[in-house]
## 1
Amino acid sequence: MPEEKRVIDLKRVLQEQLVKEGSTREASLKYAEAVFPGSMSAAIALGAPFIQAAERINAKRPDAYSTSFEHVQWLPASDPSVVRDGLTFVGHIKGFHEKFKHAPTPSLLKVPGYFKGTPHTVIGHEAEVPWPGYIEHMDYELELGYVIGKRGESLRPENALDHLFGITIFNDFSSRDRQAIEMPIQMGPTKCKDFAYGIGPWITTVDEFKDLDRIGMEVRVNGETWGKGDSSNKLWTIAELIAWASLGETIVPGDVIGSGTMGGGSALELDRRLQPGDVVEMIVEGVGTLRNTMGQPIAGLWWPEERKPFM
């Protein structure tokens, strides 16, 4: 309950309700764990029973098993099977390529581009961001996270939004110096991205938004606004991005697809960079604030020795 700055322990509430109705504690716990599992992806996969049970409990606003935000340790809003991150905002496409001094590839006009990243370095709200010592130019990227609600294969844009569960905030932390080395290999980003993906603080279900293409977005660093805009001016629609992600493969509940960075939503476009200890806040209308603190560079990591030319 964001407006009350507290969270409800749904599993505990359901268990106690069942006990009052005559169930044993063991049986009620098993039932409550089935309806409210520890995995958000598993919960979303339950579909209507999960949502309906949560809404019934929330309607009663139980105080007995709620905790204020200040006492909560936040996990990532979802535990996706794979991270997908798109490139759809026209402003960022232009700004990014201008800073790297090369023209956008015409391929961006042919298909909705995205890359796949590891789900094992996903972090949540208030988490410290790991900073591998090989990174010198650290950046954030302000994005929406499209959370998938049901399994789908080879969807079409006209039915793709039926598979959208909700929206979260997605911060695609990026090493710009390593990205400049990796991308010319033409196999996609690896070490410049996979050290951390911020997802949180929670998921707002899609029915809570009046217009998915006019969601206000802002990023602040140490309290100073570095970028502000909204989710309009996309090269590809949300439905097209989801359909493309599912084409010839499978998307599953809890998967998160990054919208791509909002125009002006990265420090690269401002000729700025993050420093250790910086506090990065991403604010999205209808969702909330995802706040992370940059960690200290991790020293002593191995790095490959450059090879001699073979051509």
## 2
Amino acid sequence: MRKYICLWCMMCCCAIMVSAQGNDPVAWEFSSRKIADQRYEVHISALVEYPWRIYSQHTDEGGPLPTVIAFEDNKAVELQGVVEEEGSLIEKYEEIFMVDARYYQGKVDFVQQVKVDKEIPQDLAGSVTFMACSDAQCLTPQEIRFKVRLH
């Protein structure tokens, strides 16, 4: 337990120092694409500067903070399946977390298929929570809110 507290304190100190420098290595884009009648793909795309990385939605317990995508309720929009990840997934043991970590560098798309109740433009809102790390440091987790027009 003491090891985890020390690790957490070190990460917080590094994050405070880095955030004071205004470091923002991840750019996000949000879009939709019609794939059939009343069906769309919502793309939540991250462009991650080298040498930074963001983590998969699927991480082992005790590992880094996974990327979490949450959608607000909209009675006219039905989520179809789970959020898929499209990119070059890297799985590597990370000493700082003492687990195999799954992460992306460069570009990754998180894709959610949806079905709309009516063939009129709808908005789908939500948030993405993520943590960016390099080999030297991790930044404070961030939450980015978004709204995508389905048309």
## 3
Amino acid sequence: MQKNIYNEQTGISYTLQGDYYLPDLTLPAQKEERHIGIWGQRYLRYIREHKKALYTSLLTSGKLQSYLADVEEQAQRLFDRLMKQRAELEGITETLKAGNQMEWIRRMNALRSAVTETVNAEVIFV
């Protein structure tokens, strides 16, 4: 038996693996390499588990990396904007940081948790 065969009708080559010929398929190359941070990783985990059709479609089309990078940027912009707005609204300032560091840390941690939940609800888990 031949190790490799080529089907001219489909344009796919096959390689012998044991008793079966398996197609030599590869994913399309990613066009760009962009940063995927915590938000992109969270979204990736979410679509892998809950939106399998979307994940498979993005993966096989070669657009997964770009899509996750877009989600990362959108979520990070929302996070930064909400942190700044809510910190000003709640009076968490550099003056508080200089005067009472532990109170500033406590309030910033609470604010970060609240903003993270908002970003998760509006961008990640949709």
## 4
Amino acid sequence: MSEERVKQRLDALANQGQQVTFWLRDDDAIEPTPALETLLHLASRYQIPLTLAVIPQNTGAALVERVVQEPALCVSVHGWSHVNHATPPEKKQELGLQRPAAMVLNELKAGFDKLRDLYGAHFLPMLVPPWNRIDARLLPELSALGFSALSVFGREKVPAPMRLLNTHVDVMDWRGTGGGRDADALFAEIADWLAADAEPLNALGLLTHHLVHDAAVWRFLERLFQLTHNHPGCRWMSARAILATA
């Protein structure tokens, strides 16, 4: 079982006096929903710090009122409107140069300012591009907007124009069923990232999308959190804490 492979690797790390860091990013939040409540309760039960990538354009007081009840929760900037401006066969992208760069950057600045003002101490100045894509020509401009970090998907590439804190394991089967991926495949992927001969990551990022989770995703998350909660070979950290210590 792939789950057992993950446990064996964590046990080996613990025996060596080492730990791997996990972090959790959930995308597309706008307002409180039953699905978000399920995620918040699950994360709270297992003391998993959560970073919500919030879409600025349509969020407001309702989500703020819920977020302030979660002291360990971070809010990051998920583009502006999560609208695709690419045309086929291009992959979906909001933060590309299909529009003038100034227009894209102005939207990002508006999103940054709005979420900073709404969420206060919960706000993390990290950009999470919708669909995990941003045109590389925009990256040198992000610091001037106030961003201190960028989070996309896949192994971090260096050198980079700013701090990177990526996600590496996506629970959703976007190209297939549209539901949750097979739990054994997900555990196998995590085990591969943790393999002794793999290039170590600063932090292994798990990517979720609460609005489209099915029962398979919730079952997988419960199993993963049960396995890793208080295991001496790993620790769950907030994005803020990881960026502050790395």
